[in-house]
Amino acid sequence: MLLKVLSINGSRRKNGNTECLIQSILAPSKKAGAQIESISLGGYDIGACTGCEGCRSSWECIIKDDFAQVVEKIDEADGIVLASPTYWYSVTSDMKRFIDRCYSLIQFPVNRKEWIGKYQGTGKACVTAAICEQSEESALGNTLSLLTDFSKDIGMDVSDSVKALGFFEAGSIKADHYLLQKAETAGKKLFDRLKR
Length: 196
Ligand SMILES: Cc1cc2nc3c(=O)[nH]c(=O)nc-3n(C[C@H](O)[C@H](O)[C@H](O)COP(=O)(O)O)c2cc1C
Prior knowledge:
alpha/beta, two-stranded antiparallel sheet
């Protein structure tokens, strides 16, 4: 069966650093013949979560916009690459709106302290990645931990996380062969996990 890997980019910048990092993470899956799809959340109309609790007893958000399309792509994928640049110490607003709407991908069947993620037990695995301009770790804020905790909460198995510090100009990350190699290694680990 053909394995599918989906990348979800929180940046709107064409040929930006997040895009380059994603390509390196996807490279081993691409080389192995997996079906690849790359999307940028900026290309989808995803509004803010209103906290209406309309998803309380279903896996579906009741707001009718492009969110369901993205969830359908996740449903169909075996592996996910979830990546965002850092905007003010966190993920971009496109990524944050998407994550908030994924509130519909968790359910609280017993009490509010325990939840189950829609993808729990599905074997769906993911790599998270975060980029920022400054070279100190503190400038990354919670970008990487947010992407990782979120992925785990919705039931995905996070096989690796990649952080890229010190990249400003679009595509400047391409000069860092060591980092891109590290990203490829994370991508290889993801693909090997999916093959099992
Ligand atoms: C609105 C905005 C806020 C940003 N905030 C931060 C920040 O808090 N820390 C940081 O190191 N870089 C920050 N940056 C820089 C970006 O994270 C950096 O340029 C990154 O490489 C952009 O990724 P991209 O090329 O994929 O869009 C910010 C950039 C923008 C446009």
